[in-house]
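Dear colleague,

Following up on Tuesday's group meeting, I ran the structure prediction for the two-component complex that the binding team flagged. I've pasted the input sequences exactly as they went in, so you can double-check that nothing got truncated or mislabelled along the way. The structure tokens for the whole assembly follow below. Feel free to forward this to whoever is handling the docking comparison.

Inputs:
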Amino acid sequence: MGFREINGKMVEATVAPGQRLFSQRGAMLAYKGEVSFTPNTAGGQGGIMSMIGRRVADEDTPLMTVEGSGTVLFGHGGHHIQVVRLTGDTLYVEADRLLAFEGTLQQGTMFLGSQGGVMGMVRGQVSGQGLFTTTLKGHGAVAVMAHGGVIEIPITPQRPVHVDPQAYVAHHGEVRNKLSTALGWRDMVGRGSGEAFQLELSGSGAVYVQASEEKL
Amino acid sequence: MFRLQSSKVLAVDMTGDAVKAKNGSMVAYDGEMAFRKLSGGGEGIRGMVTRRLTGEQMTLMEVKGRGTCWFADRASEINLVSVQGDKLYVESSNLLATDGGLRTGTEFTGLRGASQGNGLFTTTLEGHGQAAIMSDGPAVVLRVSPQYPLTVDPGAYVAHQGNLRQSFQSGVTFRTLLGEGGGEAFQMRFEGDGLVYVQPSERNTIAGDV
């Protein structure tokens, strides 16, 4: 079970009876064995209420349920894929970056305003994340897409990490994030260094950063 | 100081010193960092005017602080180059970061620049230190020695360093004029002693169309 990286842009997942997978709709490239793909109208787990929640939050990337027994290859748009293994902690990721994840993980949506209040909402806007983000919690593996390769930077309490909002991919662990600004008079007169907004992540966990400042 | 975190991400460990990097190319940092835009590539008023006039504009920022700073730009491959007293010639669009100690300047390239699709001027780096240059796909480093001159497609050329003379070579024949050219009508020829960086991709150049 889990995801095996075939190369930087393709992952292979094994499905067995009783072990479901969720993936972005249309991300299947090939499969072996008896595997069925059912579009997931509820857009994930959690019944009708969370479906409405996701609709409202605009985090309702169409998902499909993958069931059966066999192996499935996933890939999308030539983007690089990073496999993240969760052991009980929570991964925060944008819904459109989510390629596939195991059914053992609990999916949810988080209101950015609940972490950092008004600044949280501002942060969502600046980083292009919107007001909501998707969370995955539990034990299992997640395949996340990014433009260019991904590097993982550990976050420890003594060592907060600042990330360019455009290059931010996902983070996990007990991490608080806030938007820090380094706006000076130079930015006002159009002579900024292009690094006026940064996401400051502190706590303990890890952040995934892509080698590009382009969104997907 | 400079190391590659992956083939597309440059990590720079800093202890209070400064590096110059392409504007907006920071993707993450830890520790304390300050970012300041350098007008005219940090070459003062003269550099600013020269760069404006030559069209070899480069928006650099100075990064100063303690900690590690990571740089990347549009998922381009990054190559580390060490400059030891010689001169590195690179297109400003291919330059990601340099040591604070390296002097940047502009130089006239003539017809070669025009064939590369990069204009008539190029950027030079002089001094002692490291630089990170970007290429579309992993670049190869080709050695040029007096016995072995090298000919490069202008669209695939990224940078060169050392004691090299370059000339412009044209393979235009009557076939080219008839529209039956092989797409390799112009080449850059390097003679002398040095290194040339070539990328596995070709920019759009005038030469590529004929």
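Chain B touches chain A at residues 5-9, 23-31, 33-37, 39, 59, 61-62, 70, 72-75 (CB under 8 Å).

Cheers,
M.
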